[in-house]
Structures are given as C-alpha cells and as structure tokens.
Amino acid sequence: MADDHHKPVPSMGSSLGPALEPVLLSATAGRLTDVQWFRSDWQRGGGCTAFARYRDDAGAEHDAVVKLPVGFNEYRWTLRLAAQNTTDTCPVPRVYASGLELGGYDLAWLVLERLPGRPLAAGLDRQALDDLLHAAALWQQHAMATPVDAPPPAVDYERLLARAREVVKRGVAVPA
User: Fold this and answer.
1) What is the DSSP string of 44-77?
2) What are the angstrom distances between the C-alpha of 91 and each of 42, 88, 159, 167?
3) What are 97's strand-pairing partners?
4) What pLDDT was estimated at residue 70?
5) For residues 5 and 40, is the Cβ–Cβ distance under 8 A?
C-alpha cells in the first residue's frame, strides 16, 4: 500500500491515528478494516491518514481513506458537498463515516471513498493540471449551489470598545 509518496507509520506510539485506531474501529461499528496508516510527502502537522476497507449497509467492500483530525471547515464542506455526490459529477469523495468526537476527544474524523489515480505529488503533467483545474471549477460550482449557515450576527464593536475603555480606566472588569 505504501509507495514513494505514502510512507507507513513506523510504530503505534508515534502517531495519533494508530493510537486512536481501536476507538475508530468501534465508532465505525466494525465496518472499517485493513487500516494502514501512512504519512504522505505533502502532509504537515499532526494529521493522520490511512488507507482502509469499508463495508457499507449492503455488505459491499470499498477502498477508503481515513483522515483525522480534520479541521471543522474541511469537515463541514466535505459533508455538504458529498451529500450532492449522487451522480459522480461532484468532485469530492463519498463519505462513508464521520464524526466530531472520537474516544471522548473533540476530534473530527472522516472515512472517505478512495478516489482512483495518483496523487499530484507523483507528477504534475499537463493532463494532471487540466484535471485539477476542471475539478476546482466543478467544486466551486457545487459550493456556490450549496446552502450555507446564516451569517454570524453583527458585532457591536462600538459597545465593545466603550466597555474595554471602561475596564482600562477602572482597572477592573465591569458587568456587560
């Protein structure tokens, strides 16, 4: 499963993913199997990725990718756009399983359809660049058609500044 761009994680104690794997297997009710953690050339920080197999409701097995932790915006947009992926025209993988908590930790995670093809790091040629631009345009088209949450309420900055000035003058916090 490992190749020039996906290096196996050497030991269970060296990564968050392998350490949380038993909890992840439980959270997916045993549908996730053959988990193989790796670090790719383009990963930065503490993110963990694995190739795996996932068994759906009908019992069919699928190649999958596990990601954890996942930032909230990536989590939210992946779920939103994956919900539109009913005709294979949306350039995001299907989401097989997901959650915002794992083992008592506030930690978003995703089990995604493993898309065919090579990663861009394997070689960016003319066809890969054309495919990338096409996928980005499709993604934007779907994102623009996706309902989003209401914008956050307006902040009364004048009131907050006035309150901050009072705190500084008095040297103590005042009730809001």
Assistant:
1) -TT-EEEEEEEE-TTS-EEEEEEEES--HHHHHH
2) 20, 7, 45, 51
3) 111
4) 92
5) yes
Hey, what are 166's tokens?
Answer: 């009072």
* Rounded-to-integer distance, Cα 50 and Cα 8, Å: 9
C-alpha 138, offset from chain centre: 19
User: What is the reported pLDDT for 91?
Assistant: 74
Q: Which segments of 12-149 does DSSP mark as H helices, in order?
A: 16-27, 72-82, 126-144
CA atoms 157, 161, 166, 172: torsion sign: positive
- Among 140, 67, 123, 120, smallest CA distance to 97 is for 67
Under 8 Å between Cβ of 63 and 53? yes
Gap between the Cα atoms of 55 and 64, Å rounded: 10
pLDDT digits (tens, 9 = 90+) for 47-91: 789 999 999 999 999 999 999 999 988 898 888 888 876 666 667
